[in-house]
Amino acid sequence: MSPDPIHPASAGIAERRPAVWPWLLLPLVALSLFFALSSMKQARQRPAAHPDAAASAASGEAAESR
Fold first, then answer.
1. How far apart are CA 36 and CA 65, in angstroms?
2. Is the pTM of this model over 0.85?
3. Out of 6, 44, 46, 60, which residue is the most buried by the measure of CB atoms under 10 Å away?
4. Measured distance CA(18)–CA(36) in Å, rounded
């Protein structure tokens, strides 16, 4: 009879190695998310190229809708 009644064939099997890919994938995902959110934040903080043109276009649209 084998020493382990639950896993009878486990005596001859080598230990299972943990997967390496999560340790490589997770930092890449975290860095890409960081740079994507950072660039979105910088884009929001930048003023418009022509703020007066954007304001006049918005007021012109408001006047046309009346």
1. 37
2. no
3. 60
4. 30
